[in-house]
Structure formats: C-alpha cells, structure tokens
Design a protein that fits this description.
454 residues; 11 helices; binds guanosine-5'-triphosphate; binds magnesium ion
C-alpha cells in the first residue's frame, strides 16, 4: 500500500532517524482506512518504530517519530530516547526541521481511545474516537500544546502546524532497517564453519614440489599494533582456551624484544602445523627494525630467539647468525600488522619507515598482506559481535584507507579482533582470525608458486 510521502521525504526522515537506510511502509491512512482510533490501533499496534505524518489544509506537513510500538492500553507513558517531532513542509514549501525529545520518559502515551499521542503535556495529542470527513477534510479533536516533552526551539505552534487542526490526510508508516549486503562475502559464521577452517589450516602444507617443511610468515608493524596478540589469538583457537604464550602489553617501546618463530599446535602432544608465525620487535620512528635488519630476517640469517639489541643491529658477527640459510629459513610472506583504531593518524615519519620496509619486501618478490587489528575499537557493533564486521561501514572505510596507505589490494587487507580481554574463546573472534590466517597462508603459497615457475 503506497502512502502520500515522496522518496525525497523518506530520505529526509531517514536522516532524522539516523542509523542507515530504512524501509518506510504505510500502515494506516485516514483516506484509505478511515479516521478512527480503534482502526489505528488494529493496524499500527506492535509494529515497532513508526512515523506519523500529518498533512494540513495549508500545505504544512509535520508529525512525530517513535521507536516504541503503539499499544492499546488504559493509558500508559513509554520512554523513548530517540523520539522526535518534525516538519517537512511549511505552507507548501520544503522546510525540514527536527525537534528532539527532551523528556524521554514521557515521549509517547498509549491509550486505546486515542490515535498517536506524543506527549508529556499533550505536545501533540492527535485525535480520539472517530472523525467525520467533510469536503475531503478532517478536523483533529486532540490538543497541541508543544514544547513540554519535545524541544521546539523558537518554533511556535503557528509555525509548526499553522495552529489549525483541519487536515487532508493523516498517515502512520512503519520504519525498519534495510539489511545491507556485506561488503565482503565470506558466507559463513557457524560453529561447523569454524571446525572446517581449523581442519583446513591444520592440514595445510606448502606445495609438495617446493620441498619446504614450513611456511615462514613474518609479522611487522608499529609497537603495540597487536603482533604478539595475533599469534596468541591463533594459538588460543587451536588450544581451545585463551593463551598468553607471547608476552603482550602496552609500552612506549616494543614489549617484544626477541625474534620468535612460533609454531602452532593443538596441544603439547600434537604435531605443530606447517607454518611458523615470526614475531618481531615493533617498528619505531627512530629505532627498531631498519632495512638492513629486515633484509637479514627475510633472508633467514636471524636465528630463532634472537635478542634484538637497539644499540647493535644484526650483522654477520651476531651470535647464532645463520650464514648459509636454506629456503626453509627464509621468510615466505610478510604480514604487516597495524592498529585499526589509529591507522589513519600514523605520523609521517612512521609512514615513511613502513614504506621503506615495504620496498625491501617488494624487492624480494614476497607477498604482502596487512592485518588490521583492534576493529572492536572502531565499531561498537563489531565489538559486540565480530560477525558483523563485513556489514560495518566504518570497517569498510578503514579497509579502504589502509589499502590506500599500504598500496595493496583491498582483498589483502584483513580486519581482525584479537583476544585481549576475553577469558574464553568465542566463535565469532576465532572465525575471523582463522579466515585471515587462511588468506595469509594463501598469500605465502603465491610466493611459493612463483618459486616453482622459476
Ligand atoms: N581492543 C583490542 N586490543 C588489542 C587487540 N590486539 C591487541 N590489543 C592490545 O594491544 C596491546 C598491544 O598488543 P601486543 O600484541 O603486545 O602488540 P605488539 O604489536 O606485539 O607490540 P610490541 O611487541 O610492543 O611491538 C595489548 O594490550 C593488547 O591486549 C585487539 O584486537 N583489540
Ligand atoms: Mg609484541
């Protein structure tokens, strides 16, 4: 059933209501259903958020929005923190205005004998009983005192509704969110999908003909970005509880001071998986890993458990330096890890440093992916439920920004939420982390396939 309201007016109401695109559908209309309060209740009760739109004889269009369902009661106030009155047209001219609720505890009043009542002090008590139609007009029998429950600012009753109660139509529309298609389709968030991914990663191995025992994945990123936490997240998923094998935390300088080539295993008794997650100290503006050190790490010269020393960079004289590394020692994929909550405000100096390191990685023909952590700090919906990540516009924009900063395709930018405050593992966090790890393993395969071709 179509109403009188135009697409332009719906867009205006959508902006007032906030929270993205809305489906606005007609529930009740004087001209179609008759001006009768019991008909209003029959068609509009228990319908969730609604918008009431009144068209008066002077070309003024105004009304009220509530996210609380109308009900048939003996008389009861309902709290609504998001209710508002509005105007769309004044005397035939477009004049959009929103009047927010200022006494939310008495935003609406439900009573079976009346139509919609926006009030606390009868701000907009529309009509009661049955109204008769005369010359295609209805005269509302409610009262409009305005400004006790809603903040009308300087808008007078004359300006709001011409101080007249003769109307040509009165409509109530239901308002609901239009579900947005995900901006990245991964298509699964169920427990069995998590088990499937775990099995797939557990069984993963480098392509046979390459003769590699493990894929070595290097984590590189600013101090505090969540590098060690990502290893802990992956380890927690396979161990079945949140673990803290890698030391994490927040400090001015890198918490991680050793180079760790971590293996992941389900328990002490099971074989490790066929990839190593190589954790490094963080990138700092004035110290930390530089191009030469990175080159040694990528080439496999740096031994596991190497203690970084800011005053003496890695060199062939370093104890344990692997002078003749094989392909098994080398890095096969670089995973830049950055903090999503500060990605767009990284300093020029930090960006320059990252770009220089990226160029070293690129020269070696290695695959690069970017893991964006702390997405729970970027979007509150995602904080509550990580499976909404690919519906979140904020995360989509973050991925676009990071893809521009790093100059990598968007499908190589992977948002994750690490385990940090949680005590138990959660399917939504685990699924996203494993999905990202699978993409990282696939990126390492790309490099290995290039080796095969050589
Ligand atoms: N809210 C939130 N906090 C996170 C997330 N990932 C990591 N953290 C927190 O960020 C802080 C730094 O995490 P680490 O894993 O130690 O970071 P790092 O990159 O290893 O840092 P350095 O070793 O110092 O270079 C810790 O307090 C973590 O709990 C995340 O996804 N969400
Ligand atoms: Mg660390």
């Amino acid at each position: 059933m179509a109403g009188t309201i135009s697409i332009h007016d719906k867009k205006q109401l959508e902006r007032y209501i906030q929270g993205g695109p809305k489906q606005i559908s007609l529930l009740y209309s004087f001209t179609i259903d008759g001006a009768d309060s019991s008909t209003f209740h029959r068609l509009c009760d228990k319908q969730g958020p609604t918008v009431t739109v009144i068209y008066n004889t002077q070309g003024t269009v105004y009304g009220g929005y509530t996210e609380i369902s109308w009900t048939s009661e003996d008389g009861k106030y309902y709290r609504d923190d998001h209710a508002f009155l509005f105007q769309l047209y004044r005397n035939g001219k477009n004049n959009p205005m929103k009047f927010p609720v200022k006494m939310p505890e008495k935003a609406i009043y439900c009573i079976n004998s009346n139509g919609p009542i926006f009030e606390g002090g009868h701000d907009m008590k529309t009509f009661s009983g049955t109204l008769t139609i005369q010359n295609k007009q209805y005269t509302l029998n409610g009262s409009f005192s305005l400004d006790s429950t809603f903040d009308m600012g300087p808008c007078s009753i004359e300006q709001f509704c011409n101080n007249t109660k003769t109307v040509i139509n009165f409509e109530v529309y239901s308002v609901s969110d239009i579900p947005q298609p995900p901006w990245r389709e991964i298509g699964y968030w169920e427990r069995q999908d998590l088990e499937r991914l775990k099995n797939e990663i557990n069984a993963w191995s480098p392509p046979r003909r390459i003769n590699l025992t493990t894929a070595n994945i290097l984590f590189l990123g600013p101090v505090g970005a969540g590098k060690s936490s990502f290893f802990n997240t992956i380890s927690s998923i396979f161990r079945g509880h949140v673990t803290g094998q890698a030391v994490c935390g927040s400090a001015e300088q890198s918490i991680t001071s050793k180079y760790h080539m971590y293996r992941v295993r389900g328990s002490a008794l099971t074989k490790p998986m066929k990839f190593r997650l190589c954790d490094t100290r963080g990138i700092e503006e004035n110290q930390g890993i530089d191009g030469t050190e990175l080159n040694y790490i990528l080439e496999g010269n740096v031994p596991n458990e190497y203690q970084f020393n800011p005053s003496t960079p890695i060199s062939p004289d370093t104890t344990g330096f692997v002078a003749s590394p094989t392909l098994n020692h080398k890095i096969h994929c670089v995973c830049f890890i950055i903090d999503g909550s500060t990605a767009s405000v990284m300093s020029e100096k930090m960006l320059e440093k990252i770009k220089a390191l990226q160029s070293t990685v690129r020269q070696k023909g290695l695959s690069q992916v970017v893991l964006v952590t702390k997405i729970d700090k970027v979007c509150s919906n995602v904080e509550e439920d990580v499976s909404t990540v690919f519906q979140s516009v904020a995360i989509q924009e973050l991925v676009d920004t990071v893809s521009n900063i790093f100059g990598v395709p968007r499908n190589h930018v992977l948002p994750v939420k690490n385990y940090e405050k949680e005590i138990n593992v959660r399917d939504d966090i685990s699924l996203l982390a494993l999905y990202s790890l699978r993409q990282i393993l696939r990126a390492s395969e790309d490099f290995m396939f290039n080796l095969l071709d050589r």
